[in-house]
Amino acid sequence: MNMKDRWRFVRRNMKRSKSRIFMTVLATAMGVTFLIVLASVGFGLHKSLAKDILESRSVTQLQIGGMEVDGKYQPITDKEIEELEKKDGMKAVTRRINLQQTPLFQLDQYEGSVQTVMAHFPSEIDAGLELSEGRLPEKENEIIVGHDFVKTLVSSEQQETEDMYGEDGMLKKEFQYDGEVIGKELKMTVMQTVDGEQKEHTIPLIITGITEKPARDWMMDQTVFISDSILKEVEAFTKTARGMITQPDMQGIEEPEGYDEVRGYAHNMEEVSDISEQLKDQGYLVYSAADELKSMDVVFTIAKAGLIFIGTIAIIIASIGIYNTMTMAVTERTPDIGIMKALGAHPKKIKQIFLLESGYIGILGAVVGIAVAYLISFLVNLFLPVIVENAFDEQLPEGFQFSAIPWSLIAISVAICLLVTIVSGLKPAKRATKIDVLKAMRREI
User: Fold this and answer.
1) Are 17 and 398 contacting, i.e. CB atoms less than 8 angstroms apart?
2) Residue 375, CA atoms < 13 Å, CB-side half-sphere
3) Contacts within 8 Å (CB) and 24+ apart, 377-381
4) Considering just the CA atoms, what is the radius of gyration of the chain in Å?
5) Which are the contacts of 349, defined by CB distance < 8 A and separation ≥ 6?
6) Structure confidence by residue, pLDDT tens digits, 242-296
7) What digits encode the pLDDT tens for the residues 335-379?
8) E strand or H helix at 154, and its extent?
């Protein structure tokens, strides 16, 4: 009996008990659907959170907080910057210094106070700083501003009231500056206390660019980025490091050293881990998005494995029905088994026939289960975000998925289903090979 004959025998006998086979396939399909849908939640959340991390920060970026020398914290200076830039795989090293006061900025008849940062523009260019409008500074008095800078400017001719601000604490659109800012002169006024009297110094600046919109909707970038020469002019006026405003009780304060924010950028994500390990060995305090992704991958791998295990239980429960179906099939086909043995069929061939049938039931159940799982996953991603947003009044990130079904999950589900169904058919198949020919011909077991 060749494979074609065995397959024909299986199909013919399965048609005799359509109702029982249908219910068995249905139970198997339900188990597969439960496994895939349950595990797809883990895959979906993992995919969405990983995407959120990749979009919200550069995966090639390393945040370098400083160094630990003899148990003491040491900020990063130009000396360390030079060493970092020489590292293999390091594309660029950006450094920033925060101004130690919040200047007043005036644009036409509007004004506002925001955080001001000294940025090293050559390294920012190498790191791939992108602008939504304009260009990067080329002259000493040129600056760039954050994407949401104009949202902080209030008309100096209008008295500021609470009605001007929305529920989110931001200035309402009708009160915001709505003109062009590229190429405009922006006046920056810094202050210092001298002999108890407050003095001011105004520096004219030219806006050349606006940074790109932050990846996350809730993030705001209102920063003003100045050059080192502008920072030195501020320090020359205040006579303090980073424009710090002195007070009578602030005597003996040490001037800060080094940079407030240093970030390294690798050429690609594969080099981030190597550079990070090297820097940590040298005492640097380093953090990267790759570290976060690695930790998250471990957590979600464990979670997905647990969900697959729970889903497998549903298929194991369905295997009881398969065992029952195959046992009844052996009983009903006892005369056929006797005839095959009388004609010289090898017990191994008879066993393969019943294993083929149980495997066929598993394949049918897997196919139906996969199709239903994809349908449920589609409906979950379509309606659940709407329900969550309406119920909790929270806006989910664009493209957020609660459920995702990769091909690896399909392969795992099919493999588990086939394994369980074949194992369920082993004992009935083995029983079929032990049937006595004479008893079988008398329809007795």
Assistant:
1) no
2) 7
3) 377/36, 377/37, 377/40, 377/44, 377/403, 377/404, 377/405, 380/37, 381/44
4) 35
5) 1, 6, 340
6) 998 886 555 544 566 789 999 999 887 778 888 888 898 888 998 887 777 777 7
7) 766 777 676 667 777 777 778 888 888 888 999 999 999 999 999
8) strand 154-155
Cβ atoms within 10 Å, residue 358: 26
Using alpha carbons, select from 361, 435, 306, 392 the residue that is nearest to residue 13: 361
pLDDT digit string, tens, across residues 206-238: 999 999 987 666 678 899 999 999 999 999 999
* DSSP assignment letter at 442: T
Residue among 417, 319, 370 at smallest CA distance from 27: 319
Phi, psi dihedral angles at 378 (to 5 degrees): -60, -45
Q: What angle do helix axes 18-56 and 289-332 make, rounded to 10 degrees?
A: 180
Cβ atoms within 10 Å of 183's Cβ, excluding its own: 9
Paired residues of 188 in beta bridges: 105, 203
Closest CA to 31 of 415, 376, 402, 366: 366
State the angle between helix axes of 289-332 and 269-281 in degrees (0 to 180), rounded to the nearest 10: 120
* Rounded distance between C-alpha atoms, residue 406 and residue 39, angstroms: 10
Q: Distances from the Cα of 294 to the Cαs of 2, 11, 383, 402, 405, in angstroms?
A: 52, 49, 31, 21, 21
Distance of CA 206 to the CA centre of its chain: 38
Q: Single out the residue of 322, 347, 348 nearest to residue 423, CA to CA.
A: 322
Is residue 186 within 8 A of residue 105, CB to CB? The reply is yes
Sign of CA dihedral 304, 307, 313, 315: negative
Three-state DSSP class for 255?
Answer: coil
